[in-house]
Design a protein that fits this description.
The complex is a heterodimer of chains A (114) and B (112). With 114 residues, chain A is mainly β. Chain A has no helices and 11 strands. The chains are: A mainly beta (114), B mainly beta (112).
Chain lengths: 114, 112
């Protein structure tokens, strides 16, 4: 089955610790995205990548880092510099044919701070 | 920057009732998307609209692309408990980056 997988479903972070959220897709999509969702709020774009080995900051990139070494994978690291990391993190992917394409989302990872 | 405003922010309705929600923008959008997010899951695309005035249905859901291209509407008829969730509108960002702009969502609760 084609789709987007995110792991883990729940992740706990200690103070001062970096944690990495996994996102994998087997849809052969070019573009991948990371969003953060807080209760009662919409989706805010953290980082996005339209091609392997290239990525751009979104609206709230501070305290986060990404890599795109393979087309299928776009891991997100929440660094210790992110002071309020508790949120629901969503990964998405899309084909890039024009200026935009419909995005398909993974099931999300909920990050909690101990 | 571009923003999408959804209303209402939340709705609490009785099973069987019809639901209407809308999304407005200060700038023109050429495409409108409606997503639904079940609790604890990622959003799923419901309907995509590509032309001003377009009316598109998906089962009990009907969405319309406003004629001014600055708004869109989503209606759900005869609501059922599984309609519970957050409904997001979205549209392409102004720059040629593949980014989508999302509204803040309308939370729907259905009382059986």
């Amino acid at each position: 089955d084609g789709g987007i997988t995110q792991s883990p479903k729940y992740l706990f972070r200690k103070e001062g610790q970096n944690v990495t959220l996994s996102c994998e897709q087997n849809l052969n999509h070019d573009a991948m995205y990371w969003y953060r969702q807080d209760p009662g709020q919409g989706l805010r774009l953290i980082y996005y990548s339209q091609i392997v080995n290239d990525f751009q900051k979104g609206d709230i990139a501070e305290g986060y880092s990404v890599s795109r070494e393979k087309k299928e994978s776009f891991p997100l690291t929440v660094t210790s510099a992110q002071k309020n990391p508790t949120a629901f993190y969503l990964c998405a992917s899309s084909i890039v044919r024009g200026s935009w394409e419909t995005q398909y989302f993974g099931p999300g990872t909920r990050l909690l701070v101990l | 920057g571009q923003q999408l405003n959804q209303s209402p922010q939340s709705m609490f309705i009785q099973e069987g009732e019809d639901v209407s929600m809308n999304c407005t923008s200060s700038s023109i959008f050429n495409t409108w998307l409606w997503y639904k997010q079940d609790p604890g899951e990622g959003p799923v695309l419901l309907i995509a609209l590509y032309k001003a005035g377009e009316l598109t249905s998906n089962g009990r859901l009907t969405a319309q692309f406003g004629t001014t291209r600055k708004d869109s509407f989503l209606n759900i008829s005869a609501s059922i408990p599984s309609d519970v969730g957050i409904y997001f509108c979205a549209g392409p960002g102004s720059s040629n980056t593949g980014k989508l702009i999302f509204g803040q969502g309308t939370t729907l609760q259905v009382k059986p």
